[in-house]
């Protein structure tokens, strides 16, 4: 049954039926709609405020967490830079010092660092821009330091290989088998000449040995000369590089040829009695930068400290050269 509306009429003292027009119905419906919209807007506004507040709180938490993570990352970069600086210091003052090499040039280590500050402007308007710029600058510095340190270590590696070659080349053993140290006849210094019977500078060491005793190269090198050399008789000359040469004189026969590469300990010839010699022996000389120096200082690979002391004592005796 449809609802019927009545209105009291004071003139007739009766309730009279109200007949609503279409306009009246429309207005009534409009009131309901407006009230619904207002209520909905109020509900949505209240909900939006709470949602916005929640989002802002969560965003603040995330920003704080993000800043903390960025700060931790920045501290880690500082530790990396400290380690790199320590490696650089050891490279210059230990690794290179061992090989008597100059420190890696400072201008090469700093090459490409700094740069144009304009490239960092893109970070100015972002959150934590200053911190981001600081991190980017440190990352660039770390990249440059790693690059320069890698190049420095490449150089140290090459220096190491060159030093290994040099250590192999430097004369460091006796030229004949002389374990009992009985074959040293005359040392370096002023000695009585065996033929002229006058004091004369003896620029090598004499080792007595039977004809045919094997002679050994005392360091790696290249045979520079094989043949007769005046009073030295049959002679072998080895160029070891790095300013070093060795001469093996009064040989009887050769077991090498000019231009041949030899290693320390290689058999290169035989003891003889050729040239100005008064008996079978090997006259051995060491050159450093074209000047003869005392060979006794170049037996360190062949002797114990006690044996070395004994060799020095024997070679310093005022004997006659052979």
Give a verbal description of the structure.
The chain is 41% helix and 22% strand. It contains 4 helices and 14 strands. A hairpin with a 6-residue loop joins strand 4 and strand 5. It has helices at 22-98, 106-109, 129-169, 305-315, and strands at residues 6-9, 14-17, 184-186, 189-192, 199-202, 205-208, 214-216, 221-228, 234-241, 244-254, 261-262, 267-271, 281-288, 291-293. Strands 3, 6, 7, 8, 9, 10, 11, 12, 13 and 14 form a 10-stranded antiparallel β-sheet that branches. The termini are far apart.
Attribute tags:
4 helices, Glucose Permease (Domain IIA), 322 residues, 10-stranded antiparallel sheet, alpha+beta
Instruction: Give the overall silhouette.
Output: rod-shaped
The total domain count is 2
How many whole angstroms does the radius of gyration measure?
49 Å
Terminus-to-terminus distance? 152 Å
Can you write the helix and strand succession as a string? EEHHHEEEEEEEEEEEEH
DSSP strand content: 15-25%
- How helical, in percent, are the residues? 40-55%
How many beta-strand elements? 14
Helix count equals 4
Structural class: alpha+beta
Can you tell me the residue ranges where pLDDT is under 50 for at least 5 consecutive residues? Answer: none
Largest sheet, in brief, is: 10 strands, antiparallel
């Amino acid at each position: 049954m449809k609802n019927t509306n009545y209105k009291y009429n004071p003139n007739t003292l009766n309730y009279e039926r109200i007949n609503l027009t279409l306009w009246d119905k429309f207005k009534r419906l409009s009131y309901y709609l407006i009230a619904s919209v207002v209520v909905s807007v109020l509900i949505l506004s209240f909900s939006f405020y709470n949602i916005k507040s929640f989002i802002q709180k969560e965003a603040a938490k995330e920003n704080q967490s993000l800043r903390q993570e960025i700060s931790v990352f920045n501290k880690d970069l500082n530790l990396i830079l400290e380690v790199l600086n320590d490696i650089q210091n050891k490279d210059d003052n230990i690794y290179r010092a061992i090989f008597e090499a100059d420190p890696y040039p400072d201008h090469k280590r700093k090459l490409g660092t700094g740069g144009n500050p304009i490239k960092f402007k893109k970070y100015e308007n972002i959150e934590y821009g200053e911190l981001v710029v600081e991190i980017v600058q440190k990352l660039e510095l770390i990249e440059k330091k790693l690059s320069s340190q890698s190049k420095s270590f490449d150089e140290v590696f090459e220096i190491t290989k060159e030093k290994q070659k040099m250590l192999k080349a430097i004369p460091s053993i006796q030229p004949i088998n002389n374990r009992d140290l009985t074959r040293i006849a005359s040392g370096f210094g002023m000695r009585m000449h065996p033929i002229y019977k006058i004091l004369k500078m003896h620029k090598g060491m004499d080792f007595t040995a039977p004809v045919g005793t094997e002679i050994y190269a005392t360091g790696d090198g290249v045979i520079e000369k094989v043949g007769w050399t005046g009073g030295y008789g049959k002679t072998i000359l080895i160029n070891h590089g790095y300013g070093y040469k060795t001469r093996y004189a009064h040989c009887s026969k050769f077991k090498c040829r000019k231009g041949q590469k030899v290693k320390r300990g290689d058999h290169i010839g035989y003891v003889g009695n050729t040239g100005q010699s008064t008996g079978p022996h090997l006259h051995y000389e060491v050159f450093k930068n074209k000047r003869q120096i005392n060979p006794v200082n170049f037996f360190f690979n062949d002797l114990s400290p006690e044996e070395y002391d004994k060799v020095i004592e024997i070679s310093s005796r005022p004997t006659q050269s052979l």
